[in-house]
């Protein structure tokens, strides 16, 4: 089966074509700056394992449909094509950010599913409408090919009420659907299953804390394969500190900033999402830049790094308590996979929890699943590259079998 995975954002569209016979990536790319005067399409094709062809196009890309058309032409064309007919694509898997309570698993898209996705738009106004648009463009360009929606929230739908409810008037949950939903679920699911495989266990035999540290950061407490708690909340602003997002703060701070800075609630929300986190503390949001700054003696960068590691460490403690005992911790995503310094800072002095990192094994970037704990460590520590596209494609295959 060949599966095209699409992640449509408001002005971008990422795609990956996978051959699920051997889980090989046939082509991938990104269409950016859709709707701007000059858009950009970067396409890579992998006709065989030792061969990569890259095409970059810079021109106006008016909308997602035109962008998708360009992708389709490249995938099937002579320059960097990997299939000869769009009909060779058996399914299209879509990343949808907010499934709300309506979706606890992936599903084949039909009319009612689209209505239910749109019903969640108010809960994810920046993402769901774009995800839905991606689905509609795919329906138009690939008539007859099944579309599968895979939700960022679905892995977290197993959280018990005490974990997902906020201590607010209960009516707000019923009326406004305010609750913890969690995000990055596809990644948490993928790495929590992969670590079980690496440990020679079944996912339902182990308790794992998954630590997804990218531009957005989230953690999950996974008990025997099922999510019990996760750090992001009703929106992806909550939890651990991130590149530009504050993570958890005292909620009273919102009104305090609004009053003292003369800002609206929406403006404060924007500060918390875009001007906070690592960037808010030291002016830099890319972890590589922060390490360079620390090396050059920048004390604010060091403080931001220490705050970041402290936050993650604190959640490891909390989730160890939630799970009673843990078998493994998994680091993933840009920082989790590549940043040995941050991983080491997080895992320092955790022997009391049975977590002993082997700092030599931890050294360096990890392009494949790697164990980084000492032989004596009660809890295994792993670095596992995430693969959300593969997880989405696997769910599509599973569903259409
Ligand atoms: P996104 O959430 O956008 O998918 P990524 O998972 O790609 O983000 O992660 C981006 C983060 O990973 C950035 O903070 C970046 O600095 C960090 N990162 C990538 N490579 C490295 C590296 N070699 N060392 C430290 N941090 C890295």
Q: Helicity level, as a percent range?
A: 25-40%
* Tally of helical segments: 15
Q: What's the mean pLDDT score? A: 97
- Biggest β-sheet: count, sense, barrel? 8 strands, mixed
Radius of gyration: 21 Å
Order of helices and strands: EEEEEHEEHHEHHHEEEHHHHHEHHHEEH
CATH domain topology of the largest domain = Nucleotidyltransferase, domain 5
The best one-word shape is globular
Number of domains: 2
Strand content: 15-25%
Please name the fourth-level CATH homologous superfamily of the largest domain: ATPase, nucleotide binding domain
CATH architecture of the largest domain: 2-Layer Sandwich
Low-confidence stretches: none
The CATH class assignment of the largest domain is Alpha Beta
User: Taking strands numbered 1, 2, ... along the chain, how are they ordered across the largest sheet?
Assistant: 5-4-3-2-1-6-8-7
- Distinct small molecules bound, one entry per kind: adenosine-5'-diphosphate
Secondary structure category: alpha/beta
How many runs of DSSP E, i.e. beta strands?
14
Distance between the termini: 10 Å
Describe the structure.
By secondary structure, this protein is α/β, with parallel strands linked by helices. The protein folds into two domains: 150 residues, ATPase, nucleotide binding domain (Nucleotidyltransferase, domain 5, 2-Layer Sandwich); 188 residues, ATPase, nucleotide binding domain (Nucleotidyltransferase, domain 5, 2-Layer Sandwich), CATH 3.30.420.40. 38% of the residues lie in helices and 21% in strands. It has 15 helices and 14 strands. The strands form two sheets. An eight-stranded mixed β-sheet has the order 5-4-3-2-1-6-8-7, with helices on both faces. A six-stranded mixed β-sheet has the order 11-10-9-12-14-13, sandwiched between helices. Strand 4 and strand 5 form a beta hairpin. Helix 10 crosses helix 11. The chain is globular, with a radius of gyration of 21 Å. 45% of the residues are buried. The model has no long low-confidence stretch (mean pLDDT 97). It binds adenosine-5'-diphosphate (ADP). The site of adenosine-5'-diphosphate has 13 residues, from helix 10 and helix 12.
């Amino acid at each position: 089966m060949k599966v095209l995975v699409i992640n449509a954002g408001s002005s971008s569209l990422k795609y990956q074509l996978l051959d699920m016979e051997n889980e090989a990536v046939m082509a991938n790319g990104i269409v950016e700056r859709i709707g701007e005067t000059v858009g950009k399409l970067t396409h890579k094709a992998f006709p065989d394992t030792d061969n990569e062809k890259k095409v970059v196009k810079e021109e106006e890309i008016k909308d997602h449909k035109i962008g998708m058309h360009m992708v389709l032409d490249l995938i099937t064309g002579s320059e960097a094509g990997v299939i000869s007919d769009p009909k060779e694509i058996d399914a299209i898997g879509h990343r949808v950010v907010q499934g709300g309570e309506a979706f606890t698993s992936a599903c084949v898209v039909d009319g009612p599913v689209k209505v239910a996705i749109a019903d969640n738009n108010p809960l994810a106004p920046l993402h769901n409408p774009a995800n839905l648009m991606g689905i509609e463009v795919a329906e138009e360009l690939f008539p007859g090919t099944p579309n599968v929606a895979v939700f960022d929230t679905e892995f977290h739908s197993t959280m018990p009420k005490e974990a997902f409810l906020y201590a607010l008037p209960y009516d707000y949950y019923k009326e406004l659907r305010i609750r913890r939903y969690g995000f990055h679920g596809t990644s948490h699911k993928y790495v929590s299953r992969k670590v079980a495989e690496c440990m020679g266990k079944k996912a339902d035999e182990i308790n794992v804390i998954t630590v997804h540290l990218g531009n957005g950061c989230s953690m999950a407490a996974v008990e025997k394969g099922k999510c019990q708690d996760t750090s992001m909340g009703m929106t992806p602003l909550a939890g651990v500190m991130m590149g530009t997002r504050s993570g958890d703060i005292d909620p009273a701070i919102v009104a305090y900033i609004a009053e003292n800075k003369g800002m609206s609630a929406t403006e404060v929300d924007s500060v918390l999402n875009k001007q906070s986190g690592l960037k808010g503390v030291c002016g830099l949001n890319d972890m590589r830049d922060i390490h360079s700054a620390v090396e050059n003696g920048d004390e604010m960068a060091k403080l931001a790094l220490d705050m970041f590691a402290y936050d993650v460490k604190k959640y490891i403690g909390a989730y160890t308590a939630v799970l009673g005992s843990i078998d493994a911790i998994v680091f993933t995503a840009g920082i989790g996979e590549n940043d040995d310094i941050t991983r080491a800072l997080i895992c320092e002095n955790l022997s009391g929890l049975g977590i002993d990192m082997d700092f030599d094994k931890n050294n360096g970037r990890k392009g494949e699943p790697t164990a980084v704990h000492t032989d004596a460590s009660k809890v295994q520590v792993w670095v596992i590259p995430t693969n959300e596209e593969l997880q989405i494609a696997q769910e599509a295959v599973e569903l259409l079998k």
